[in-house]
## 1
Amino acid sequence: MTPPNFIVGIGGSAGALAGYQDLLDALLPRTGMAFVIVAHLLPTANSQLAQILARRTKMKVTVASNGAIIRRNHVYVIPPDSDLLMDGAALKIISPRARRNKQVDLFFISLAESIGAQAIGVILSGYDGDGTEGCKQIKERGGTTFAQDDSAEVTDMSRHAEISGNIDFVLSPAKIADELNRMAKAALASR
């Protein structure tokens, strides 16, 4: 089994559902990348996020499970009341979550530590600054970072990341997908 050429962490909170959907709508289904959606979910949520997003892509969309090996052209969604980490090529779930609204930073930092320049961080709509430190870690290890532009319903998370100076691209979710498609094609061409 060939590992993904990149693993894309996608973080969001309030207002991010439209961003996840727009991004998946515009992504090619066979990029060779893997996508991990780290949403701020209420601990008691009966989340239907994986089922909702599965309607927007031909890629397989599943709720992340402990020990799952990350596969290319798959989308993984964080379960409620959990922290999600990379453990080598696998996902590690810690439940209950350690702190409220730090799941994006925790995943992005573990992603950067695990795969360095093959890590991609995407910050979408949401309150507060979760994901900013994770983007910094991704950038320090040669990875690529994106923040949603003013199309975000709630601009706190994306703007906080952008102001930190650790964001490569500030774009709408559809334009982020276009850039990811371009990166995937370039990676295939360089093989």
## 2
Amino acid sequence: MTLACPTANAVQEIERNLQDRIGPRRFQLWFRNSSSLHFDGRQVLVKVLNNFIGGWIENHFSDHLRAAAQETLQQEVQIAYQVTTDPGKSDEKNGSPEKKETFPHQNIIAPTKLRRKLRNSLDSFIVGTGNELAYSTINSVADKVISPFNPLFIHGGCGLGKTHLLQGLCNALSERHPNVGWHYISGEEFTNQFIVAIKSSSLDAFRRQYRNVDVLVIDDVHFLANKRATQEEFLHTFNAINAAGKQVVMASDAHPKSIDQLHNSLVDRFISGMVVQIDLPDQPTRAKIIETRAAQLGHDLPDPVIQLIAERINGNIRELEGAILKLFAYASLCNKPIGMDIAEKVVREYGRLDRVEIRISLIERKVAEYFNINVSDIRSAKRTRNFALARAIAMYLARKHTTLSFPEIGKYMGNKNHSTVILACQKIEQLLNLNQEVSWDTHTAKLTSVIADLEQLLK
């Protein structure tokens, strides 16, 4: 096919087209200052200084770049990326044909695969009494971009829909506000990218990636706990975005005050906005989730089966989805229609698992009531005498009266390290063996008596 313009002018035309699509400010930042375009007659190559710049351009501009190149060249083109210490300017800008290069395989980021949408949408989110406030605040951000709820911090146990809400927000922003720049990332990804940025001396590019957005959405923010340097970097990122009047939305398994080894400066900023908890779905919400998920899988479940599962499995959404899949697998293997007999077999196993979750939450609640503190104090990193004693006793009782492992107990009680749980249990066992007294606030009592009282409350 004959190109619409000679190779010598191709890059200039592509750049003009691209600038019209993304605006001069973003074009100047990402394609003048941080990268350069090259065209060899077959593919458009984006030369970048480091992986962060390449990843950012790929995730945010590759669709625009591909469209600009195809419109300019009037042919299908491949987009590729090359990390180089000197992106330089393309030879065709100087009016001379581009010199042929051999691009080392390890330096090429594979041809762009733009993730146009994140997996989840707000439309598919099942709203119930346990999550309606979280849904409403997320919708407010999706509508207004910069909402009164800033920062917005959503917390709750695993499998309750936090990630669904955050991804749904990003997709809604793309649909309702196409010109708004957002960035979605997990705490783990932020940490890993920060470490790479330090090692590759590309902190400036890393910081531009996160601080030049309208909405920063970070999932699993509790992953930053116990990582001082990353927390400091995120604090500066948060301050920069907040100072610019932009929106920050976060999600975590725990309330900011309950995240162990999270710097007080971050805790203060997280709670300065709106903190919303997502609770376990109630029975009507569970029934709606079961019905919806089954329909998505092409099944129309009988209402008695839906109600049985909703009544007997009172855990999180992932457990409900797992039960649905197991139900379909049973029916397929037995070559029988889905009925109450198969449903009974499925819920029997999940019912046992649910009791473990209920048991540890009951232990936390009863211990908190006994010591006249909050459950959040047990999950926190506070080390005052009564908090530390209550936390150690709760861990000991959880280990004794549930089948949870040390890491599982630690994760449940504020993402503590498993060694913390082991030491707490050993300490309580030693005190019990010595028949020691323990003191908290104005009370002093034999530990054996305290444990006996609590175990009576758990019956």
